[in-house]
Amino acid sequence: xxxxxxxxxxxxxxxxxxAQVHVLTHGLHYGSSVFEGMRCYKTKxxxxxxxxxxxxxxxxxxxxIYRMDIPHTPEEINEAILETIRxxxxxxxxxxxxxxxxxGEMGVSPFNCPVDxxxxxxxxxxxxxxxxxxxxxxxxxxxxxxxxxxxFPAMAKTGANYMxxxxxxxxxxLYGFVEGIALDVAGYVSEGSGENxxxxxxxxxxxxxxxxxxxxxxxxxxxxxxxxxxxxxxxQHLIPREWLYMAEEVFFTGSAAEITPIRSIDKxxxxxxxxxxxxxxxxxxxxxxxxxxRRDKYGWLTYV
Length: 304
Ligand code: PPE
Prior knowledge:
This protein is of the alpha+beta class. Helices cover 28% and strands 28% of the residues. A hairpin with a 5-residue loop joins strand 9 and strand 10. The radius of gyration is 19 Å and the shape is globular. Bound molecules: ligand PPE. This is Branched-chain-amino-acid aminotransferase.
């Protein structure tokens, strides 16, 4: 990976290579971490973070579910993020705030372990490959399903949930696909290993509801708002697997994946197998706002 200069750890800036933890860190053994992922885009007025406050709010919600008291306010975390970008002198980057149960005591109970916080930033190119955003990606429906409700909370962005994501992702890569789509425990479409999903059907957009074991994606929310402003109906609706193959367009959304068209699923082409016009239009608007070239009427950008 492309190293940056410094990482913020519990309120202090430490050199990249020295940002280390004890091997008995609770989060390493028991998956006890919550995190965020967001992007900072290059604009004419300098770097700008996309939906900073919404990501920080989701971080606090994830922590709340797991009874982790973050020893900082959301404002302090926002400032730590902005200062980390400044000190690393990056024009654009990916941002990874991490909250984890640190080194204290072994055993499942995390209560005697500190809640540690870190913020790292680095340059990160296109998540699903260099041509993914224009050409689209070939994906498969995973043999792994998303976690059942009331097992691992899907709405919390926790390290532990990404063991499920890793099963989905590794299977897809080893079978020659770029990504996997997981079904929920009832067999309805849920999401990718690191992305939400939308389909276009008869000119309307459909995306799985929160009850289908999805992460409430911030890019998903951005796309819903852009689409509605374009007078495209958006429905949060259960999606049977076979609907994927019939759809006019299918795309992924995520902070890392941005808006990525899906051109085939299980080797069945989606429509003509090329990026569709609605996907292209939403991309144009999304990247337009993120890069500061379109008016940010939503207040999505925080200038660094
Ligand atoms: N679902 C999952 C499982 C997920 O990990 C992400 C983000 C999303 C949906 C989309 O959420 P949002 O970013 O708020 O629109 N995945 C992050 C992790 C990527 C990684 O490999 O690390 C991301 O996109 O930052």
